[in-house]
Amino acid sequence: MEITTKDIIDNYSRRLSLFKDLLSCIMRERENLINRDIRGIWSSLEEKQSIVDSIEETTSQLNGIMVKDAVNRDMLERERSKIVELSRSLMRLKQEIRARVSENVSFINETLGFFNEIISAMTMSEADKCASYGPYGNARRGRRCLMYQGRV
After folding, report:
1. Which of 37, 76, 97, 138 is a good FRET partner for 107, with 20 to 30 A between their CA atoms?
2. Is 133 helix (H, G, I), strand (E, B) or coil?
């Protein structure tokens, strides 16, 4: 099956559209994480999986065709520049998606670390409590001499 230049452009346009959908889904996932919307997070996961499956389908359609191959074909300059521009837009979008995913993962890790600290503080033994923080962020210390507790 011969792949035409129009097929390549259509495929890149479809991939670009799918990656934009993926980015918007990741942004919605971020909002769901912040708002602690569990149902929204699950629906985002299902939507992301559907989008990723579609992206993989478009990838398999152009298996073996690279941008360099498309540029080297006999095609009009307008078509060649269109493919290159779509490819660059796709690369920028992929970088944006990586950044947003990294932010979401960081948010999840920070939240889990916070909950881990809370659980650790609640289950702390008496020996560990002296190393923890007391009210107003002051470090707890051992017993102080009565002389230092009096008012002047």
Report:
1. 138
2. strand
The dihedral of CA 43, 30, 109, 52: what is its sign? positive
75 is a domain residue: yes
Residues 46-74: pLDDT tens digits?
A: 999 999 999 998 887 776 665 445 545 66
Q: Which of 75-84, 115-124, 143-152 has the lowest mean pLDDT?
A: 143-152
pTM (predicted TM-score): 0.69
The CATH number covering residue 49 comes to: 1.20.58
Lookup: tokens for 36: 């602690």
Give the number of other Cβ atoms within 10 Å of residue 24's Cβ.
12
Which position has the token pair 């078509």? 79
Residue type, 82: K
Domain count, the chain: 1
Domain holding 80, by residue range, is 5-121
CB 122 within 8 A of CB 51: no
Residue 78 φ then ψ, to 5°: -60, -45
pLDDT in tens, 99-110: 999 999 998 899
